[in-house]
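User: Assemble these into one structure.

Assistant: Restating your components, then the assembled model:
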Amino acid sequence: MTPSPLHQILDYANRADPYPIYEELRRTPVHHEGDGPYVVSTYHEILGLLHDPRVSSDSRTVARTPHDPLAEPDQQESALPPSFLRLDPPEHDRLRRMTNRPFGPPHSPHRVDGMRGELRDIVTGLIDGIGDPDRFDLVDQFSYPFPVTVICRLLGIPREDEARFHTWADAIAASLDPDPDADPAERGKGAHDARMQLGMYLAGLIEERRRNPGDDMLSALATAQGEDGSMTTMELLSTAALLLIAGHETTVNLVTNGMLTLLRNPGSLQRLRADHRLAVPIVEELLRFEPPVQLVPQRVTLADVEVRGVTIPKGSSLWLVLASGNRDPRRFENPDRFDPDRRDIQHLGLGSGIHSCFGAPLARLEAQFALSELARRLENPRLLEDPPPYRRNAVLRGPRHLRIACDGIRA
Amino acid sequence: MSGDGSLERFRREGRVVVVGASLAGLRAAETLREKGFAGSLTMIGDEPHEPYDRPPLSKTVLLGRAAAERTALPRLKEVDATWRLGVAATGLDMAGRRVRLTDGDEVPYDRLLIATGVRARPWPREAEAELDGVFVLRTRDDGAALARRLAAGPKRVLVVGAGFTGSEIAAACRERGLAVTVAERGASPLVGALGGVVGAVAADLQRRHGVDLRCGVMVTALEGDAAGRVRAARLSDGSTVETDVVVVSLGATRNTEWLAGSGLGAGPRGIACDAGCRAFDIRGIVTDDVFAAGDVARCPHPLFGYQFLSLEHWGNAVSQARVAAHNMLSESTDRIPHLEVPAFWSSQFGVNIKSVGVPSLGTEILIAQGSLEERRFVGVYGYQGRIIGAVSFDQARWLPFYQELIETTAPFPPEFATVDRRAEGRRPLDADFPDPSVPTHGPTVTLSGYSPADRRMTFTPAH
Ligand SMILES: Cc1cc2nc3c(=O)[nH]c(=O)nc-3n(C[C@H](O)[C@H](O)[C@H](O)COP(=O)(O)OP(=O)(O)OC[C@H]3O[C@@H](n4cnc5c(N)ncnc54)[C@H](O)[C@@H]3O)c2cc1C
Ligand code: HEM
């Protein structure tokens, strides 16, 4: 008997190339085994479910199906209320609206755009610091620190505290990416401690910002008095943690997957070097071709939902395999080809519907800056191993290391 | 034109004439070229401007955020056409296949697309309509003039009619800090398009934003001063509103007069055409060389029992234009029908309103998600046990789901649980539409029965 698709997805042996499994999976657009989750793998069906009000993201009210291997462990330890990622309307909408007020249009149309200069400086600084061009790890030296610094600047973490912030982020990230050889108790404890310390640190900073607000996002959130009222400190802590994790664990992979893909497609790398504006379509195609969030677990049906002739009963867990939908030949021509010139590129890489990526404009800009600067400055870059070693995580999928050699680093 | 190569010849060297050089006209022209039409293309438009976009006229333009002159429609494709702008078509000779123009010219065609849209219904009393300070809003020039006047800081603006356009105008005025009175003959704003339940929310929205909203009244007369400037309006409840700007927003009249006597099935309700956008003649026989698209067209829709629908919707103009252009170039078996579910959006008082389907056909409404009180909700309209339309206030991301329910004629009321279902969503309410036999300016979707002929129609002005 061949192992079930579910286990194949989770099997680390398939991490470097899960796409053949998805292709197989799409033969049964709604796959279900035993009392596991319903796995949905085709584009139109995923899109429909992302817009379906009979599907809940709420982590509290909905009973979990017993055998969902990706179901969240009890978050009791953190004692924070759920973030809006794990809430339904109206709470989701209220918190997302309040968070958006200091972040995007209509109230703050310039926040992300205003970060361009800063993004450029961060990218420049990281590339300057690469050191030995003969052998470096793009993940540790660039992709990992980059988004954490960006979130620090967005939230307004004082520069002198950024180093501590990085340490906590690393510990939390490690817990999201279990290394089978590490002692799980140790690892759990490390992450737990990091969460607690981060929480305490942020709570202190929030107090300080309430007294002396700056023009950063945390200050704006801490002092907001709009039609939606204000956020409690607990809500604010959850939201800040969400921004950190949702912005970190994803952007790391987008940048690394991006460089990996460009090194495998030297023509595109060459074109990007010649014209940095190509970064826009390249990042879009990357979000389709190698999406950092491979699947969205943790959705539950509130009613019986019929999809492609299969009735998914009320109370079932769903996995929406975005990465598979992005390679659905019924939606995209030649889906397995990396093609930045694609005009029809409504991918699922940033989700869709009310939970679609909140940070999308920032994520795009980060990746565009990172890839165009890497393309411009690394002279004759080469992969030292292909495929690279991957992180364990099947959901937030990407290389753990990306070892590269180049002839030099341009100014 | 079939099988004998004549279609091929037409695609190579035929003559297409488009009357009405706006949204539908331009998109049709682009589609013709995109699909390889290599013959001659003539665009006839009575406005002197290149095709421009109307929705901003009642939104960003009135707020002073965009100039009316900068609303040109983005060009999706080079059209290589002869543009006859500032020239109206005055007649159609169907037998001779010619369009007559105001300047006396006649333009021959092999295929004709009529996309003459609608115009604002003017204030019915001519002398009063001519007073300085009395406006309508349909064209770019209207928008520029009104925006200029609003920027000058009038003491008060009176908006006559609270359909979508009137409500958007009122919202823009309030955002500019101007005093606004809205006079609406129906029981609430938007009542014709969305019914009384949702209309009450729209009324609440207006009042919260400081609009002096008067419903159930008609403006009976406009008064001018000695210099010919409007100074007051009299209302049917005996009151008077002192105002220096009046915006008449009483809906639209179809631009079909120029077709009178041509033999085409055109009248006050528009041009009847089949699902492939081919126009009917007055005998109810479909033509093969005259097509219609956009606000001026009325097409039968399979989802609504094949009744003719007239839609004043941006998206409808675009999709009909594409269908018409495609069908002009196709053999009969390759033609495609216009099946899109109607969809409309409006933004007013900071709220994004969106609808799909035909809410005004509904008799009942269920608040499926959210709450009327919070002014954030999805309302689902039911007609004879099926879902026929839906509207959202600041909840647009859910609408694709409801659109699918409309497309699959799902039963009403929907029985299933959803996120954000409140107590008020347990039971349907009477949607509370006004008596359909009384014409209002409100709905931007009108059902007009099964007959392609339009001879019995008599037009009763709202005032
Ligand atoms: C202020 C305003 C706000 C709007 N907001 C929205 C919105 O938010 N959402 C939405 O979905 N829709 C909205 N609409 C409606 C949308 O703009 C129309 O549905 C769309 O413009 C229809 O395009 P059309 O090409 O069919 O007709 P039109 O745009 O009306 O164009 C017809 C053209 O033909 C010309 N013409 C008429 N007669 C003749 C003749 N005899 N000879 C030559 N030319 C002629 C007209 O002058 C005009 O230029 C709005 C409309 C207005 C006026
Ligand atoms: C490349 C980078 C990124 C990718 C691929 C990505 C992807 C996604 C996806 C797929 C979702 C939907 C989850 C769901 O449907 O449950 C999501 C949600 C979210 N993302 Fe991102 N994201 C990225 C970067 C960011 C950044 C930089 C931020 C923060 C600044 C961010 C903040 C969020 C938040 C807050 C949500 C939850 C939205 C909600 O529930 O309403 N993301 N992201």
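The longest strand of chain B covers residues 364-371.
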